[in-house]
Design goal:
The chain is α/β, with parallel strands linked by helices and 332 residues long. It has 13 helices and 12 strands. Helix 5 packs parallel to helix 8, helix 6 packs across helix 8 and helix 8 packs parallel to helix 9. The chain is globular, with a radius of gyration of 21 Å.
């Protein structure tokens, strides 16, 4: 976190709790999350499906619908509190100061409108510009994100574009108003590895060229290693580990993070069964007592089954939610 402290803070989430109130009980999808995104940095939020990554992002955008709601906590963008802000104020931020790239571009784009028209609306909704000026800006951003024949693609419908081009359109739509914060929710899901590499390179380039901070949500630590400066690892609604990218990989702390790293396929390794973390992600309606990961943890102690650990300092502002670090110790 020391690198973060050297940069001006753009987004600060403090003790955020977003719960879903169902007829079966309360689901604590996000349960006391605290994280920071500095200006001009790419911050990764990693974890298995259902850990609360996307709900955290949707909470920032105030897009949590019933039966869910933000129960408590603070979300500050450039010092401005978003929790409790009026709907008009939030709408002004969406697409303008905060943009989002959703997981599946085909379902995010309207099939009956050209992609040029859809991206143009992102400009005309927030800024007073003519249709011709908006069109030119869209063509310029299409060129910036690497879409060939940008003028021709402006008139294309989503089904006429490949998956990689549709994802570039979504990135263009997110970047056309030059937002302060870009939330990328699994932006390379369903793309082949070649297109994935191009999209990740593009995101690094956008961060460099436009100074936009990026919150990258993914389950893939390989993607994180490629582009992120700082990483938060989530599990069952909580942050389990946080560190700069080098510490996370060189001095991995939490047993869950170690399991995720071991699960990454190694192309040059001898043929063997792919490692998987034993057990299942807990049902958020029936969370285990104590540490939420202890039923699946090979290092679990009696204390882990009885009490919930805090985030302990593992050195260099590397925080780990594990009792093994309570007294500065390290797993064997």
């Amino acid at each position: 976190m020391s690198e973060q402290q050297n940069n001006a803070e753009l987004l600060k989430i403090t003790d955020l709790k977003t719960h879903f109130f169902t007829h079966k009980g309360v689901v604590p999808a996000v349960d006391g999350v605290t994280l920071e995104i500095p200006k001009r940095q790419i911050v990764g939020v990693v974890g298995e499906s259902g850990c609360g990554k996307s709900v955290t992002a949707m909470s920032i955008l105030q897009l949590i619908s019933r039966p869910g709601r933000i129960v408590s906590g603070s979300i500050r963008l450039d010092g401005k509190e978003l929790v409790g802000a009026g709907i008009d104020e939030i709408r002004e931020l969406r697409g303008n100061k905060i943009s989002v790239i959703f997981q599946e571009p085909m379902t995010s784009l309207n099939p009956v409108y050209t992609v040029g028209r859809q991206v143009s609306e992102a400009i005309t909704t927030h800024q007073q510009v003519s249709k011709q000026e908006a069109k030119q800006r869209v063509i310029d951003i299409f060129k910036a994100v690497g879409i060939p024949e940008a003028e021709k693609r402006f008139k294309a419908y989503p089904h006429q574009l490949s998956g990689g081009l549709r994802q570039r359109v979504m990135i263009g739509m997110a970047m056309v108003c030059r937002p302060q914060l870009l939330i990328a929710d699994e932006p390379t899901t369903a793309l082949d590895v070649t297109i994935e590499a191009q999209i990740l390179h593009l995101m690094k380039q956008l961060e460099s060229d436009f100074g936009t901070s990026i919150m990258l949500i993914t389950h893939n630590l390989g993607v994180v290693a490629e582009v992120c400066d700082y990483v938060y690892v989530m599990y069952a609604g909580k942050i389990m580990e946080q560190a700069n990218i080098f510490d996370l990989f060189d001095h991995t702390g939490h047993p869950y993070t170690k399991g995720l790293l071991q699960s990454i396929p190694k192309p040059m390794a001898e043929k063997q069964r792919l490692y998987n973390i034993k057990g299942m992600v807990p049902n958020l309606l029936r969370l285990p007592k104590g540490c939420r990961f202890c039923p699946r943890c090979e290092f679990a102690m009696q204390e882990c089954h009885e009490h919930e650990p805090e985030l302990y300092d593992a050195g260099n502002q590397h925080l780990v939610r594990c009792f093994l670090y309570k007294n500065g110790g390290e797993p064997a």
